[in-house]
Amino acid sequence: MSRFTAALFDLDGTLIDPGEGIAHTIQFVLDSLDVAYRFDGSVRWYVGPPLSEIFGRVLPRDSRSDEMIERAVSLYIERFATHGAIESLVYPEITEIVAKLSISTRLFLVTSKNTAVAEQMLSAHLLRNHFEGVVGTERDSRFTNKTDAVRFILKQAHLNPETTAIVGDRLHDMIAGKDNGLFTVGVTYGYGTRRELIDAGADQICGTTRELLELLGK
Q: Which of 176, 216, 174 has its CA nearest to residue 193?
């Protein structure tokens, strides 16, 4: 039997590699808004942050009004639902891992994405049925950060922090877990670095999805 009764998963960089889908969708939004800017998707800084933060960086300074950013986010969500989610890729063995874990462990998704977008991505890759709940912080006034979202899940689902793990590839996931008393698992096959995860206080670091299954399935 697993040492954990529940596990909270990040989405981007943990379950799914969304890089190509996100980059294409951002460029579509910029073209739709008639912004003469070729988005450089090679650095991948845009994987993880909320959409409002992304467009706050890529939109021209004279177009960064709240209204324009909101318009960009709306266009992104609409486009991503039909194209971006499909262009994203599930990391190797993740489907198998999630299916196995869900037999004895309650699984939840917590992401900085909009909840509807996260639902679309999970459904597009046939992962949604393995998760008891999905919570996104983008456009949700209940949450100021991922720490708030994790606290909400713990309370709503009546989870015991001492037997709950959080899995993610960035420092925000580790901080959210630490702030709520969870066991924090960092993964380095996504977009975060080992140093970033160590500095954020990760309790365990997994370099591969197989290591992740061995840890959570113990």
A: 174
